[in-house]
Structures are given as C-alpha cells and as structure tokens.
Amino acid sequence: MSRVVFVLVPGVHLLDLSGPAQVFDTARDLGQPYELTYVAERELVPSAQGLTLNARTRWPATGPDDLVVVPGWRSSPPHDGPEPGPHALERLCAHHAAGGTVAGVCAGALALGRAGLLDGRRCTTHHELQDELAARHPRATVVRDVLFTADERVVTSAGIASGIDLALHLLAVRHGPALAARVARNMVVFARRNGHEPQAGVMLRHRSHPDDVVHRVQDLIDARFAEPLSLTYLALTAQVSERTLTRLFTRATGGLTPLRYQQALRLERAEHLIGQGSTVEAAAREVGFDDARMLRRLRARAL
How many angstroms separate the CA atoms of 143 and 78, rounded? Predict the structure, then answer.
C-alpha cells in the first residue's frame, strides 16, 4: 500500500487539498492501494474558506513509494502567515532523502523551498507568489506560466485547480496513462489545461472533448497501447464503422487517427523509459515496437 500524507497549515485552501486528495481517493476506488493521511501541528486546522479540518499530530512512517503533499494556504503580502514548522520540514527532507516524492501545491512550494528541496531544481507556484519564491530561493529555477513541474521527485504546481493536474500526472507516471484517464473521466475533468509542459502527457492533451465514443476507444488504447490494435477491432469495440470512428476520433483529438494516438502514447512512454536509463532498443520492445527503427523515426519526427 502507498500512503499519501497531506501536511496541513492554518488557512489551507480547500481545493489545493481536496483536488489531489480526490484524485488519489478515486484511484483507490479503482483498485489502487492508496491510504490518505492528514497531519498538522494541531488536531483542528481552520481552512481559508472557513471549514475546520481534523488532522493527526503524529506523522506516520513513510517509505520510497509514499508521497508527501503540502497544499497551499492563504498567503497575502507580506506573506508572513503560518507555514509548516521545523518538524514538518525535517520530515519532508528525510522523506525525499529516503527516495520518496514530495509535492507542493501553490504556496506549498514555499515550504519545499524552506526545506532546501528546491535548490538547483525547476519549480513553480501560483503566479502571485512566483516573484517571492524566486527571491527567497535564488538557487531554484522558477518556471512561470506552467501548471506544474517535476524535477527529481520534487513536484510543484501553480495551485488551486492545477493540483488536480499534478496528481493525475503522478498517477500516470506511477501506474500508466490508462489509470490516470479513468480517474480523470470519473472526476469529469476531460477539459484539461496543460500549458506547454511535456509532463501534461499525450493522454491529457487529447481528452478535452465530450465525445463518449472516442473516450471509450481512448480508454482501450490507453490501457493496451503496447499491443497491436487494429482499426477494425477498435471500431467493433466502439460499435461504429471504421470510417465513422476515424472521423469522430480525428475531430475530437484535433487531427489524430487512432493509430497516431497510439504511437504518441508509445513514444511518450519510451521517452520516459529512456530518461530512466533504458536503451532505445529495450524501450522500443517495452512499448510494443518490433524493433527500434520505428521508435527512432518517431523520435526524429518529434524533434
């Protein structure tokens, strides 16, 4: 079982917290063994929106497969309000040092900075806090006008609704795009915003449409992108003709055929594997290509 620990401070923004929490809770409903835990310095935590939350004051044990998330809080100039205390910062550092992933939503990036986790890394936060983040942590690279960044198991997002984008990205990296697609569909967040960040993913970039036939076919391709999937088989599954499926799919995804969509998923997964140290040949086999020549052609085309 993987644990997701949310670190709460007084004035926490509900959507900074509830968006990512809903993503992982939905993944749990779909069969992934996630346990959600909420910690704070005091048991009662007032939110920025007036709702008081209950949290535990003792941190659970965490391992490399666990995630620690710091949701944002109400922070107005001069931004001298409550922030996570020394114990929480120590736990953030220790968790990351042990191989775990840490995430900051909105002002949560300030906490990661205070813990020393942003030095030499790319990060982002809400646009109203970006100047302050850059001033506080000059060794960090603050990326502006993006929804989220991920750099060596340190993930930050612009905040508010973008915490959902961050959490779906983490699901896609951990479990593949098919689960992230199912969670997004369950949460009715097809109209995804993705900026220019490559972490947004092929699946997320082409889910911003209401066509249920195309969503069903995408669900199938997302789950089995490494397998041969003929247009005939996809059309039979969708109970439409091949010509109709191609027309609907191309219109919904902005010009992609089902085959091109599958190739894009394979390429994205292969690039991730190569980035983790896999050879081109091994990555090609892993994502379903008979040999590496097609993968090399697709990579060259993308460049």
Answer: 22
- Residues paired with 67 in a beta bridge: 4, 101
Given a contact cutoff of 8 angstroms between Cβ atoms, the answer to whether 157 and 106 are in contact is: yes
Is the four-CA dihedral 221, 224, 228, 232 of positive or negative sign?
negative
Helix (H, G, I), strand (E, B) or coil at 98: coil
Q: Smallest Cα–Cα separation from 2: which of 174, 131, 135?
A: 174
Nearest Cα to 258, choosing from 276, 288, 233, 280?
233
Q: Which domains does the chain have, with CATH numbers?
A: 2-173 (3.40.50.880), 209-302 (1.10.10.60)
Condensed to tens digits (0 to 9), the pLDDT of residues 179-227 reads 888 898 888 775 444 433 443 456 667 877 878 899 889 989 988 999 9
Rounded distance between C-alpha atoms, residue 20 and residue 211, angstroms: 26
Asked whether 153 and 170 are in contact (CB, 8 A), the reply is: no
